[in-house]
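PT: before anyone asks, these are the final sequences, not the draft ones from last week. 1358 residues across everything. Please model them as a single complex and drop the result in this thread when it's through.
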Amino acid sequence: MKKLFNIISLLVVLSILLAACGTPATSTPEVEPTTAPETAAPSTAPEPTTPPPTAEPVEPIATLKIWADDTRTPILLDLADEFLAEYNVKLEVEDLGRVQDIRTPMITAAPAGEGPDIFIGVHDWLGALVESGLVAPIDLGDKQDEFVPLALEAFTYTDGKLYGVPYATENLGFFYNTELVPEPPKTWDEVLEIGRKLKAEGKIQYAFAMAGGGYENLPILTAKGGYIFGRDASGAWNPDDVGLDSEGMIAGVKFLADAVKEGLVPATADYETAHSLFETGQAAFLMAGPWALDRIRKSGVPYKVTVFPDNGAPFLGVQGFMVNAFSENILLAQTFLTEYVATEEFMQKIYEAGLRPSAFKSVLARMDDPDLVAMGEAGANAMPMPNIPEMGSVWSAWNNGIALATSGEQTPEEAMKDAANQVRALILGALAGMVNLPGSYQDKVGCGAQWDPACQATAMQKGDDGLYYLTVTLPAGDYEFKVALDGAWTVNYGSDGAQDGPNYALKVEKDGKVTFIYNPETHLVEVKFE
Amino acid sequence: MPEPSFLEKLRTSAKTQRRFSIAIRLIIAMFLIIFSIFPVLWVISASLSPTGTLATQRLIPANPGLDNYHTLLSMQQFPFWSWFLNSIKISSITAVLSLSITTVAAYAFSRFRFRGRQTMLKAILLINVFPSLLALVAIFLMFSQVGDVIPFLGLDNHNSLILVYLGGAMGVNIWLMKGFMDTIPRDIDESAQVEGASDWQIFTRLILPLLRPILIVILILNYITTYGDFVLARILLRSNEKYTLMVGLQIFAGAQFQQRWGVFAAGALMGALPIMIIYLALQDQIVGGLTRGAVKG
Amino acid sequence: MTSTPAPPAVKRGTPFQLPALPRLIRFALLIALDVAVFWLLNRLASLGYYPLMAAVLIITLFVNFVLIRREAYPLRWMLIGLIMMGLFTIYPIIFTVWVAFTNYGEGHLITKKQAIDQILDLTYLPSSGKAYSWTAFRSDEGDYALWLIDAEGNAYLAKPDEPLSQPQPGEMGVGPLDARGIPESIEGYRRLNQIQAATDRNLKNIKFGEEGKTIQIRSPSEAAELLPLYVYDPDLDAMINQETGVVYKNLRGTFTSPDGEALRPGFIEYVKFDNFRDFFISPALRGPLLRVVLWNFAFAFFSLLLNFSLGLFIAILFNDPDFPFKKLIRSLLIIPYTVPALITILIWRGMLNPDIGVISRLLYNTIGWSPQWFTDPWWAKIAILLVNLWLSYPYFMLICSGALQSISEEIYAAAEVDGANPWQKFWRITLPLLLVAVGPLLIASFTFNFNNFNLIYLFNAGGPPMAGTPTPAGHTDILISYVYNLAFSGSRGVNYGFASAITIIIFFIVGSITLFQFRYTRMWEEVGENA
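LR: through. Structure below.
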């Protein structure tokens, strides 16, 4: 030990010498100038305009960097050699762990130019990624017909463009213990009935267990008629219609809460609990996804997968390849995906490794794993996870609502009403309740810009009479304006008092004070000049 | 009243009293040990159990075996040993350099009087209080930019990672070190100074040897912190062969730890070994009681 | 340099005169460093990395100051540490402060220039325009030609700056057509397959055909007569749609039309104090903030108290050279610290699970009752303190063991002569002296726990939930987990700007506590000064 101590002392001495001499350890880049130009050059170097017939076999003409998860990485790596040999294009595959671990690095790295050309992701990231300009659209051309329509739909954003090449879908399936339950139940009430009977016989502890919150219990909630977001006329998700306190949702939560009260479902919602109870035969049913097949099979419990009772719908998640909008090889990346990935051969390999139903029709048709086939059937009516950014506001409120109802702390009605209001507040943000008059006059009264629905200077104040007032001093001129609520354009009223109606026209004859009065009942604005 | 008299008797003899005290302390130790190692035994049991779920798991697993360890070491995407070496390399370099920086700086704080000394000490503590959520983004961007100019200080590079870790050297440990130094009487160095020794000589010859227990403590703390970090390492390291063990564990075994529970447990235990060994090797140095003699002399 | 003597009371801390040669070396190295930094600054500037450049510049000026000025001599001892701190601690803090005044977050992740470039790249197919499928040919000189086939099946040959032509096989060097109607060869050109063509990054930018009717490749399957959809007007700071004429003005980082239609993507933009304003008028403040803050203080305080007490207790208990099995016991007690917290927190989660966890089962089998560690608010709080105790006491055991060595045995001997009992010795001698060394660490530990996001998040994510709150919150949520949850679940996704603003507010809270503690608990400082 003395020796080690001496070494440490020596290093301490060394570092003091450095300090005393004034050459900090970081500051040794004087050797740099020789290497730097070399590294700066390659970014512009691969100009194929200068034909390199002699150097061709040595240096790949291009490199495609791919971020993948640990299941898909080996398949892509297998492909890399073949691809290099055939096209002299190098595939650089980096394994980032789970699929969901790719999102955050992508968000930090891509704008800095450090991102991959292609990355694997889940369709519900589109909200964040497209709004941030991080993914490039993909045109599958004729190959479009070879994909499962629901999977393509999931990767299509509200602007109608396709942003990913889907390879697999995943959704929950309904597992039941074949030893305890010979025939799968057709309704959720039957599920509890069977549970009650088996429990009375002392064969099980619980009918089933909640593996989590909203996601894991969705098949029950949808079976009772619950929904999360409504859809507008064109079928797009409508974030203004929050369905957490819809009658069906409350009924679904009540079903769970009653089951907990009766002792047929444990009060704690936990993934490990739900799976362990099923695997040890302590619970007769389980709602689980394809990711759990491995461990359920290993546990040796006799099981079967089937569709959900009462036609309950699980969430559909679609995994796919996306192209980084900041890639310098966008065309190559898109071509690689359409020519190489969107092929039966490749999709088959992914299917074999991933244990997920394929998003490619011909591969899906040949799927031979009975569990996956059953899971596909359970997901036939699945609801694609909403890919709008507002979905991010839903999760914790929704899960909390379910937890509060099942623990008995609140009634299902109270719990879900609170949850829905929390979601609405989160979606509207800090400016909820603001009534504003965005228009072309705003820059004259202290707003930074025109047509800003969140400008504090033009926010209206509520009077005692229930009407909203705003008084500003305007120079003479012609102006236009509109009414906007909650600091955003989502809800706005025009001069006819109708939503999204035409602009108000305002003519100010001479400089002076102008007072606006808004009536929240008629949505009309009255203008008074001083 | 048999009990008081029994206790009385015990107290009468210093030797018996000491035995009694040791016995009590041993019992306390036993409870503490159960508290401290029970969860770890649980991890060990999980790592030995071939079918690892929490519900089925017993302290002594049904068919114990080294399957999980075997899986761990033979996984193609899981180059355990090279990650392990990366971790050891990075933590060792960081721990020692960081200790050097801390010690020298603490010496200046303890022995020199200069303007702004108090303020700097407080500022160091205050700066380390800042919640560091966005530090990760800043550091990533920084190295992405530096790497464009100086390739060996870019992303996916161990040098960069070590540098970032050294940024923590001017942290609370300076206070710990300074506090310890402050208890070393100043007349020691004053008399040396009279004899014409330089600051540098006083520090290396007189002070440094007295610091041994605290040096070892800080070394171990540095080592454990660096070794256990996966947040910074995860942000800066990108390629499989450069990962540290904690990053690797988090990414691969942790990826679906609910599915690969046992493998994850095995990896975590093997990863914990170096710290255990270092602690075992150095713990005598912490409580050696060697310093007293020197101070007295 | 002046030879002003140091203040009379302070003899230390002035440099002894270095011999001439080392001093020369020092200056030579300093000049080398400055030259290197100058080069680095140049490169950073040419790449446009101005914030980093400013940081490097300031740090270099500081280094020069410290190494040249004599009065900065004590700082030379900590120069490397200060540089590292500047780069990796202070720079990120400044970055955070900057972010707090921007809208950086999902939806606004890229710079304005990047966003403008992306929008300008958008094209539209004018009503008269046509779309084709394409095949690329390349000459040895690197010139391209495209073989285009339109929807009706008509084939065209397109070259840059030349009008389209419709050559038959044999004309213009066009070879025989293959099954898909594409020539197998064109004289002077080599036919490329899709991938080969796509490897040229420039291909998308080449304009084929005559001026005014140029054709560009738009995707692997399509080339078309495209026109740029938007034009940027820097005076208006607005995008103008060429097809419809609508003007999209920059509104807090999004080009927005008067109707409220927004152009994607948004970009990073200064929003002044908006993030702070949003916090102060957000539902978060109307919500359970007070309860969260109270628990936050309780959590940090009790964590510190329990962890430190147990650590110190163990350190003192076995601070005895002759204690049997001392080494073994200590080694076993340090174990919780050696296994990564990432896994042990999850293990604790599993062990406390009310249905399948070992502790719950054990309690249930012995006393017939077990706490609801995850659904009962009070037991959840106790559980989290317990887990934190398990995770952290070895740290205090370690530093207390080290720090106990700084207490001279003579003091104890003197106390024993005065007839002090062990209890008195502990309160009068051990504890005060120990606090000299570890006092600041206690503050640091308090603040660490005050913001101990990882523990809360991994253990139960703040649960169980509180009922009837305007924003989602849990009974074990601490300030940072509660408000980050808000910042990360806004309607636009992760909002770093808002999170940074909150970070700064929390820093002010924790920072004032720290300063307060400095002011009113001066014991260690005083003892330190007297030593």
